[in-house]
Write a structure and sequence with these properties.
Blueprint (H helix, E strand, L loop, with lengths): L2 E4 L2 E4 H11 L4 E7 L2 E7 L2 E2 L5 E6 L3 H8 L2 E7 L7 E11 L2 H10 L17 E14 L7 E3 L2
Antiparallel strand pairs: 1-2, 3-4, 3-7, 5-6, 6-9, 7-8, 8-9, 9-10
Amino acid sequence: MTTEVVGAKEKTDFERMLAIIQENSSHAYLATTDGDQPVLRSMAPIIEDDGTMWVTTFKNSRKIKHIMNNPKICLAFIEQPQGDKVATVIGEAQIIESMDLKQKVWKLAPFDLGEYFPKGPESDEYCLLKININKVEWRDSWSSKINTYQP
């Protein structure tokens, strides 16, 4: 594991990767599959400090139908505007029914979920996905090597 010195503290690879993900969570793209066709859409996942990833969406969205048929996803975080720093998550999306988790993630969101779900986390339309990570490939810059993280 390599480290980077920031001030008096060294950052681990995991911390560097997580920083890329958190700093670029509003510039993320989620890929699902519709049959054998990949489908890509912009997203704003919610990222916890331990790396846990959540996606909020509408229960009747196309992405939910895709995930129900094939839970494998790819989630890419890209630094704007040049794309120097990138982290690509390969994993599976899990539909979460727990009201406790729905309420927890509602409070964690850095944006107003009430704008989309005015009835709050109890809304029938509010759907929560947990991204279960199999692997993350990431880089610090265009010229750096691709690093791999596997939980």
